[in-house]
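Hello support,

Our group uses your service weekly, and this is the first time we've seen a run hang past the timeout. The protein is TetR family transcriptional regulator. I'm not sure whether the cause is the sequence or the server load. Input pasted verbatim:
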Amino acid sequence: MPTSAPPSNRFARRRAETRQALVRAARQILAESGDTSVSIQAIADRADVGFGSFYNHFESKTALFDAAVADALDEYGQAIDEAVQEIDDPAELVSAGVRLSAKMAGSHPEIMQILRHRGLGQILPPSRDSVRAGEAPSDRGLAPRALRDLERGVASGRFAPLEPTVALSAMGGALLALLELRFARPDIDGDEAGANLAEMVLRMLGVPPDDAHEVARRALPELA
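Update from on-call engineer: The timeout came from a worker crash unrelated to the input. Re-ran successfully.
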C-alpha cells in the first residue's frame, strides 16, 4: 500500500486548502469592517498565500467576498438546522431561530458580524426580478428556513393569515437591530433580549400573548 497520497490528490488538497484560506481571510475582513475595498495583496497576505494564487481560484474580489458570505451563511444555516431538528411547532421554530441567532452573536461572532454588515440582503428571499432573471433562490442562512416556517404557520392556522414575505422582512429588520444592540452593548443579557424579541415576533404573527410568552421561553436547543 502507498504511504502517501498520489500527486494528483496532493495537488487537489493543496488547491482546496488555498481556496479555503482565501475564503477564511475574506470572512475575517467582512466580520471586522465589512470593507471590500481592501487590496488583493492584503487579502493574499492575510491568507498567507501568493498573490498569483488568488486568480487561480477567483476572477475578482466580488467573487471571493460572495463566496465568503455564502460560506458563513452555510455554517449559520447548518447550525440552526442541527439545533431545531426535533421541533415541529412553527411558532417554536420561529422563536428558536430568533433566539439562537441572538445567542450566536456571542458564540459565533464572525458569522453574525458578517450578517450585520451585509444587512437585509442576506435575510430576505430573492426578489421577483431576480427570479424572473433565472437566479436560483438561495437556501442559505435563516431566511429560507424562516420563510418556510412562516408559510407552514399560516397554512396551519398557528399564525394569522398574513403575507409571509412581509413578515420575514419585519423579522429580519428586528433581528438586525438586535444584532446591532448586542455588539454595541455586550453587557446586555443576550438570552433575555432574544427571548423578548421572539415573543414580540410571535405576537406580531398573531400568537396570543400568553402563548407567545411561554413559547419564547421554552428550553432552547444547544448549538453545535
